[in-house]
Amino acid sequence: LSSDTQPAIRPFDYQRRLADAPWPDLLDVPTGMGKTAAVVLTWLWKRGWGIGERRCAPDPATPRRLVYCLPMRVLVEQTHEAVCVWLKRLGLDGAAGSGKVSVHVLMGGSDGTRTWAEYPEEDVILIGTQDMLLSRALMRGYGMSRYLWPVHFALLHNDAMWVFDEVQLM
Q1: Are 57 and 45 in contact (CB under 8 A)?
Q2: pTM to 2 decimals?
Q3: 155, 135 Cβ separation under 8 angstroms
Q4: Per-position b or e across 85-99, b if 16+ CB within 10 A of its CB
């Protein structure tokens, strides 16, 4: 993604292949090679959002919820910041219910965990710590109302693609 102050960066070969091929089970790429950008931007591309005037037909094999599971709060914050910058530069960032892509953080002490679940038809990126995401996936949502456990359980198991990043720290 380019801006007024930064030139466009050409994607690595694996990033191009990721956009053209079916989703792999494992993305084995060294640290610092743009895995997060590759996954998020490929997900946007395959969901049909495209970049600028370039759009493609939505890939039916790409779920509408991208669930990014990380082991530490600091990684969640870094990933959230990067994703928000990319979406803003592409003009795709929006709140839940806006018809654009919303980004939500699920980690202890963060608010707004209900808004993403109120719009199950919209594309959403969920970024959270493993304890918050996995407890919801096991229908025992940590720090949330028991009445919402089945809702989050269902949304995290249907039409959702999970990405486990930094697995060596989990």
Answers
A1: no
A2: 0.89
A3: no
A4: ebbeebebbeebeee
Six-digit token string for 17: 């292949």
**Phi/psi of residue 127, nearest 5 degrees:** -120, 125
Angle of helix 73-90 relative to helix 35-46, nearest 10 degrees, comes to 50
Place of tokens 């094999």: 61
Nearest to 128 by CA among 96, 154, 106, 158: 106
Segments of the chain scoring below 70 in pLDDT: 1-8, 51-55, 109-114
d(CA 134, CA 110): 16
**Cα(170)–Cα(72) distance, integer angstroms:** 9
Instruction: Answer whether 132's CB lies under 8 Å from 72's CB.
Output: no
